[in-house]
Design goal:
Layout: H1 2-22, H2 28-31, E1 40-42, E2 48-56, E3 59-64, E4 67-72, E5 76-78, E6 83-85, H3 89-93
């Protein structure tokens, strides 16, 4: 009988960390910027870059200065007026 109670206690202790790891959902979706066609993109200095023409995998296509610029999604965050890139206009000219 002692063996069964020790075995049950051991199994209970092993299961506790597994339950604790799955208890908290990740809130990443709530903080992700809304990246879709038509949204304005601003540079790191606050200059208007343009509107998103399309989303292509991990880049967004924006028409800037009569040419298509492909900005990595990883550089975008939500700002007060739309999406803000961590890149400057000079950086965007080199893309």
């Amino acid at each position: 009988m002692k063996i069964y109670s020790v075995l049950a206690l051991a199994l209970g202790l092993v299961a506790i960390p597994a339950v604790a790891q799955t208890a908290a959902p990740a809130p990443a979706a709530a903080t992700a910027p809304a990246i879709k066609a038509g949204v304005l993109v601003w540079s790191a200095e606050g200059h208007r870059v343009g509107r998103i023409d399309s989303v292509r995998g991990d880049v967004v296509a924006v028409i800037n200065d009569m040419r298509m610029v492909y900005i990595p999604v990883a550089t975008l965050s939500t700002g007060a007026r739309g999406l803000v890139s961590s890149l400057t206009l000079k950086d965007l000219d080199h893309l």
